[in-house]
Each structure stands twice: as C-alpha cells, then as structure tokens.
Amino acid sequence: MDPHIRVRPEVRRVADDIGTMEIRGAAKIADAAASALRTQAVESEAETPETFRAELRAAARALHDTRPTAVSLPNALRYVLHGMEGATVEDLRSNTVAAADRFCDRLERSQTDLGAVGANRLKDGDRIMTHCHSTAVLACVEAAVEQGKELTAIVKETRPRNQGHITAERLHELGVPVTLIVDSAARRYLNDVDHVMVGADSIAADGSVINKIGTSGLAVNARDRGTPVVVAAQTFKLHPGTLTGQSVDIEMRDESEIISPEEKAAIGDPTVVNPAFDVTPPRYIDAIVTERGQFPPESIVMLMRELFGEQTTEPWLESGQ
Ligand SMILES: O=P(O)(O)OC[C@H]1O[C@H](OP(=O)(O)O)[C@H](O)[C@@H]1O
Asked: Do 9-111 and 117-308 have matching folds?
C-alpha cells in the first residue's frame, strides 16, 4: 500500500472492537463505523485529494472486513463515502464529516420513529418474548411504556453470548418485569405471550430476515402457536445486494464462545460450529416495523427499490484501490 495512505489508529481500534464484539448490535456497529470514518476525515494528514480519498476507502475497508452479516455496516460506510465530494482536501474533509453527521443523526431519528410505529402494535397488558439484544425492539418497548402501557417480557438468554442478559437489564431499567428463560424453553412459553419481537442484522429482498442464531426456530414455533412475529429494523438493515441475487454471508464465530479447550478434549474433541446468525423465511414473519411504517415482509422489495434504485456498488472497492 502507498506509504502516504495512513489509516488512523482510532479507526483500527473501532474495527478491532467491532470484530471482537466490544461494539455490537447492528445499529451500534453502523454508528461506530460512520463515526470512525468521520475521525479519519478530521485527522487525515493527506496533502492531495487523491490521498485523502484513498485513505477514506482504506479506512472503510478495514471497518468493512470485521463482521460479514449485518448490512448496516456496509450501508453506513456507503452512505458516508458517497458524501465524500469535493476538489480540495478541505472540501472533501468537510463534506465527509457532514455526511457522517447526517448518517448518525438519521440513525437516531429513525430509531425513535421506528419505536413509535412498533409501540402501536403493543397494547396495555401485553407480554412479549425477545431474542438477543436489539436496540430497535427496545425502542418500541420504550415508546409503548412512555404511552403509559404496562408490558411484561419473557427474555431468551440467547446462547452462546447470553445477550438476552443485556435485554433483561434494559427492560428492567424501563420498568418492564422480566422472566428470563433458557433458549430451549421458548416453545413452552409461547402460548403465554402476545408478540415475539426481534431485531435484524440484514433483511433480504424476498423479505427473509437474518438475525441472531435461534430466531428462525423461534419464528417457526411462534407460527405453530399462532403468536405474531414482529421484526423491528430500520431501513438501513435492508440489504441492497440481495436485489441482484447476492446472498447474505452468515458469520461463523470462534468455538471458544461455546466450549473451552479442556471441556472439548474431555468429551472426545468433537467438531464444534458456531454460526452467529440464521435466516427466517418471510412466511414466518407477520410484520417488519421500520421508521417508514410497518410492512408485510413480502412487500419489502418495493421499499428497497425505492431506497436503493439499481445501485449496489461498494465505493471502497473503486478501481485503483
Ligand atoms: O440494531 P439492533 O436492533 O440494536 O440489533 C440488531 C441485531 O444485532 C445483533 O447482532 P450482534 O449482537 O451484533 O451479533 C442481534 O442479532 C440483534 O438482533
């Protein structure tokens, strides 16, 4: 790589934190990535527009290559890099900073707007079941609580990283009584809940939802029990590549999240696999709640065409870089 192209240490730190899941959750990852590009733009010592652009693309690539499934990450990078316009370094810098600020601002507003839509589905006295930790789901609950609705929640612990514990803590802070269950107890309690509410890491053009491993089994069981499944996700979870036939990569994480080397050796050294996400087909989903309103999953492709048009290029892969 050209020695003049310097990715700032803060960008590397954010990339590491996303890779190790210190920063996690699709919306938080998008926010952190856009903010890291902002830092790169502010701190860049590039002397030419070409070097500035190359640095921003290198920073975007470092951030992009951390986790493969949540499309919020490439969508955030794409948004900021499309704003990187100008003929001088100073113009490029200020336009990139403005684009990053716009993105983060939209992210925050979209979460609030989505929460207001999702809250309309929730009635006073309802009980929800959640899987993993989704800020979008919590935005719906928070808006409903602010409207004076009393809710209760059954929270799946969400092995292997137990992110359900974060959800339990946040719901407790919102004053929502929580019952924590192991993942395999979900079916037993589905008759007792009014809605299953989950987030999304990516949504494909056919309305499939890619979310934390275990979501698809939960949705199939919920359909069997007649419990509606609601996916809360801002539109930057829509995966533009799926419009042109790409599939979504499912991240495989380290086996150490499941078992220690000693435990593994003690049980005969089995092969261990640790997929972080699964795909829930649209027929198991009742509604996708976004900041633009609520959609049946099969109609999400119309929204995608409106938002993305035909463009699906990755700006950090532009020729010459
Ligand atoms: O954007 P919000 O709704 O916060 O989160 C969406 C999804 O991101 C998380 O992925 P991970 O924990 O980063 O693997 C979970 O799968 C969660 O449902």
From this structure: no
